[in-house]
């Protein structure tokens, strides 16, 4: 199969950079629901712009390209060892070309392999079938939404919903709770795959396989179809909204599958996927490896700039102020900000993720961070003519830094943190005491934010790997929304409290 590796490479690039049309239609429906002028409407509009930019530039939609997961159907006698070697070669090339971020980290040493290869990655599932062609499906599911996967063992007591038994209604409660617990940390509005039954491993596998279904398909099992329809009608009523900002669109798709289980076990497994629903597939000629057909409708069939989808509602009553600030920031700059304000930052900014935060607790910083801004971001970077170029640079989920953030801000005089999904009470207290602010960028909008980065002035801790290194960036007009301020206010806490109250309204049996 002379063309097999090339075909896999093309599949990787298409999956990373172009959303299929069924996903775009779902996002446009969300865009239509949100009230114009609200934070949620601003977020979904930014998402739409980012999708278009990624396709035009053939660059990653989101900087977190996840762990590549392939499901391959092949005829008996196909050389799976050779296919695996060529898939690995295609992965290495796509990483080198900036279509994938190097994401393979040794769990013991913390070392990044740099080429997305390592023990257990990429994930490849082979299944034989009686057809002559080869089918390859690929999903790129980022770590932020992967962390919001959840598995329930029934019977269970669920927050806001009470007892969930071993029946269809108990499953219903688990799914609603799964949507509630994701909040804005999984880059909503999102899609979910649900696996009912199996054991702990196969339940999660079944849930993730549901994400390969088409958004607008119909479940052949009548009870599961009814449950899917119910979840789609109900989830938006939780009021979590795009990015967890509150709003009208919380869930874009729900797909449910079931398998047999042991008498003692009843698992409900939920795989949460962000709006950047990157999955694609191809059929290949088994002799040549050439692509015969793309399995999901190409993205350009549904443009994201459809004027009929914009501003269909009257402006909401949300009050929003806008501030243009130059870094480094003063305490006075920060204390004037309130939840809901839009901030446009220009000047130096530093990236910092898990490895850096852990390091800074016990060590000095390599640069003066007084008044600085830390961006929770693991960018896709490429070196061109001895210069680093930012290929994708959206925010990562901030809550992972909750054990460190407040302490580090006070220790080094950091005034602002940018990320997605918000942070907890420990950080909120530190913001109030120290004079700091949390700015929520739009999760997954990697091209939108890369455009604001005017240059890379340096990098520290490359030994942590490209995503975890401390990149010295120069930004202009970097836009984010204040969601935690220096006055003790948190939009995330408000939305979570409100959505929990709404969740409780669905406590009574339905099925």
Task: Describe what is shown at a glance.
By secondary structure, the chain is an alpha/beta fold. The chain is built from 14 helices and 20 strands. 31% of the residues lie in helices and 24% in strands.
What brief labels describe this structure?
single chain, 511 residues, alpha/beta, fumarase, 3 domains, 5-stranded mixed β-sheet, 5-stranded mixed beta barrel, 14 helices, 20 strands, globular
Topology record:
Layout: H1 4-17, H2 21-33, H3 39-57, E1 69-75, H4 80-96, E2 123-129, E3 134-140, H5 143-146, E4 150-153, E5 156-158, E6 162-164, H6 168-182, E7 190-196, H7 200-210, H8 222-234, E8 251-258, E9 267-273, E10 278-284, E11 291-294, E12 322-326, H9 331-335, E13 342-351, H10 354-362, E14 373-375, E15 380-384, E16 387-392, H11 405-412, E17 416-419, H12 425-434, E18 437-440, H13 446-450, E19 453-460, E20 470-484, H14 491-503
Parallel strand pairs: 1-2, 7-8, 12-13, 13-14, 14-17, 17-18
Antiparallel strand pairs: 1-3, 3-10, 4-9, 5-6, 7-9, 10-11, 13-20, 15-16, 18-20, 19-20
Helix pairs in contact: 1-4, 2-3, 6-8, 11-12
Structure description:
- Belongs to the class-I fumarase family.
- This is Fumarate hydratase class I.
- Residues 307-494 form the Fe-S hydro-lyase tartrate dehydratase beta-type catalytic domain.
- This protein has 511 residues and is α/β, with parallel strands linked by helices.
- The protein has three domains: 1-140 and 280-314, no CATH class; 143-273, no CATH class; 322-495, Fe-S hydro-lyase, tartrate dehydratase beta-type, catalytic domain (fumarase).
- It has helices spanning 4-17, 21-33, 39-57, 80-96, 143-146, 168-182, 200-210, 222-234, 331-335, 354-362, 405-412, 425-434, 446-450, 491-503, and strands at 69-75, 123-129, 134-140, 150-153, 156-158, 162-164, 190-196, 251-258, 267-273, 278-284, 291-294, 322-326, 342-351, 373-375, 380-384, 387-392, 416-419, 437-440, 453-460, 470-484.
- The strands form five sheets. The chain has a five-stranded mixed sheet, covered by helices on one side.
- Residues 306-317 have low confidence and may be disordered.
């Amino acid at each position: 199969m002379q063309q097999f590796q090339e075909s896999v490479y093309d599949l990787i690039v298409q999956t990373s950079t172009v959303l299929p049309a069924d996903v775009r239609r779902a996002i446009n429906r969300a865009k239509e629901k949100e009230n114009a002028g609200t934070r949620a409407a601003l977020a979904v509009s930014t998402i739409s712009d980012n999708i278009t930019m990624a396709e035009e530039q053939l660059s990653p939609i989101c900087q977190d390209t996840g762990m590549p997961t392939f499901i391959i159907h092949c005829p008996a006698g196909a050389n799976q060892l050779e296919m695996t070697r060529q898939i690995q070669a295609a992965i290495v090339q796509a990483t080198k070309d900036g279509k994938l971020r190097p994401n393979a980290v040794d769990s013991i040493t913390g070392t990044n392999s740099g080429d997305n290869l390592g023990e257990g990655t990429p994930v490849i599932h082979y299944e034989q079938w009686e057809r002559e062609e080869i089918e390859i499906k690929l999903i790129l599911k980022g770590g932020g939404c992967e962390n919001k996967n959840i598995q329930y063992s029934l019977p269970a007591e669920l927050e806001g919903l009470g007892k969930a038994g071993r029946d269809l209604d108990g499953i219903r409660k688990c799914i609603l709770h799964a949507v509630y617990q994701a909040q804005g940390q999984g880059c909503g509005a999102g899609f979910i795959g649900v696996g009912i039954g199996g054991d702990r491993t196969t339940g999660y596998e079944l849930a993730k396989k549901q994400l390969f279904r088409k958004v607008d398909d119909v479940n052949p099992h009548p009870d599961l179809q009814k449950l899917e329809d119910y979840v789609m009608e109900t989830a938006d009523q939780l009021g979590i909204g795009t990015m967890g900002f509150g709003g009208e669109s919380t869930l874009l798709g729900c797909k449910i599958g079931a398998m047999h289980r042991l008498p003692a076990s009843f698992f409900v497994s939920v795989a949460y996927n962000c709006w950047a629903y990157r999955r694609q597939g191809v059929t290949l000629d088994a002799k040549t490896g050439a692509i015969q057909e793309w399995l999901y409708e190409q993205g350009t069939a549904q443009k994201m700039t459809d004027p009929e989808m914009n501003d269909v509602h009257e402006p909401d009553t949300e009050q929003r102020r806008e501030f243009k600030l130059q870094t480094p920031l003063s305490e006075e700059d920060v204390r004037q900000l309130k939840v809901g304000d839009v901030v446009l930052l220009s000047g130096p900014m530093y990236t910092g993720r898990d490895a850096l935060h852990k390091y800074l607790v016990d060590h000095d910083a390599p640069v003066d961070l007084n008044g600085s801004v830390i961006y929770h971001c693991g960018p896709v970077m490429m070196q061109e003519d001895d210069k680093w170029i930012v290929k994708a640079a959206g925010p990562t989920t901030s809550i992972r830094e909750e054990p460190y953030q407040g302490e580090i801000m006070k220790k080094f005089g950091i005034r602002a943190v940018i990320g997605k999904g918000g942070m907890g009470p420990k950080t909120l207290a530190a913001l109030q005491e120290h004079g700091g602010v949390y700015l929520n960028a739009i999760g997954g909008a990697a091209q939108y934010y890369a455009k604001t980065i005017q240059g890379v002035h340096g990098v520290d801790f490359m030994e942590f790997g490209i995503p975890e290194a401390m990149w010295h960036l120069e930004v202009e007009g970097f836009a984010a929304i204040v969601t935690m301020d220096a006055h003790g206010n948190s939009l995330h806490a408000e939305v979570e409290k409100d959505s929990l109250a709404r969740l409780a309204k669905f406590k009574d049996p339905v099925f």
